[in-house]
Design brief:
The protein has about 325 residues and is of the alpha/beta class. It has helices spanning about 30-45, 65-75, 95-100, 110-130, 160-170, 185-195, 240-260, 285-295, 315-325; strands at about 1-5, 15-20, 20-25, 45-50, 135-140, 175-180, 200-205, 230-235, 265-270, 300-305. The chain has an eight-stranded parallel beta sheet, with helices on both faces. A two-stranded antiparallel ribbon has the order 2-3. Helix 4 packs parallel to helix 5. It is globular and about 60 Å long. Bound molecules: N-[3-({4-[(3-aminopropyl)amino]butyl}amino)propyl]acetamide and zinc ion (ZN). Zinc ion binds near residues 182, 183, 269, 271 and 308.
Length: about 325
Amino acid sequence: MRVIWNPGHAVHAPPLEVEEGAITPPFEVPSRFDAIRRSLDAAGRFTFEEPLPIAVEELFALHDADYVAYLREGASPIPSVFPYGPTERTCSPRTRRGTYCFDTYTPITAGTFEAALGGAAAALNAAEILASGTEHILYVLTRPPGHHAERARCGGYSYFNNAALAANRLAKLGPVAVLDLDVHHGNGTQHLFFDRYGVLTVSLHGDPMHLYPFFSGFADETGTGRGLGFNLNLPLPAASTPREYEPALAAALERIAKQGPAFLVVPFGADAHEADPIGGMKLPTEHFAEMGRAVRALGVPTLVVQEGGYNLDVLGPSVAAFLSAFHPISAH
Ligand code: SP5
Ligand code: ZN
């Protein structure tokens, strides 16, 4: 399997996050990338390629130019003020930062723009390869993640929505489905495609009553305008096991099959693993192989994009288990 990776990811190394007013060590760290790389190397049958760089303007397909320019300016602390409302004015630098962010987990460091741009490049390069029809499955190995990023707001460790950029590119060729398997709701992807007819967004995630991002991911969010009926949220209770995940994934795949997509994009996180420090779910490593087999059975050309997963011991094996299910059966 061809893996398109983000070679410059490590220049984004957040020093901290802020959780309910407390400074805590970051979960989203460069060693996550190395852990995945090591497991794929050990599993075999993966080849690694760097993406060609993209022009910044390619981000403007889904992200506002002023937001992109703000990230490019460089280091900026966790905001204290989050402007909103009918008269919000963001002329002060103190309010500007909060305009472009929706939580306190997502610092902008000196290297954030470059690392996030490299991830977008990896996703768009992979989409281009999938569009060319030579591959049935591709994997984008990158960090920081992307599925929480909205048009003009970072959050949830995400800055540019890599998977959404890929889906948007592929949507030029036909209907696209996004199947988000990270344990957290892909609020950014939902937000970007909520009114779109040609892109079906489906997400399995922890019930937002109890799990981040809390404000989005409920079952009654089904799309708007021409996109009505093209967003499906399948929230799962805390501590869900394969018993709960399996029927939810089956329902997700049934909805996708009904759409009949030309391409599938899978924002994939291993943070539903039983050993993940923040997901709260109960999936063993082997279940990620089960998920991979179920997704593969759709038979749709698929682009897997790395999102979360924060236990450094199980992240790599879980990714390898999921992806290895897509390998062609080889004769032994
Ligand atoms: C891409 C992705 O997985 N983003 C997730 C962002 C979650 N941020 C919230 C982290 C909250 C950590 N709370 C720790 C509580 C430990 N019991
Ligand atoms: Zn997550």
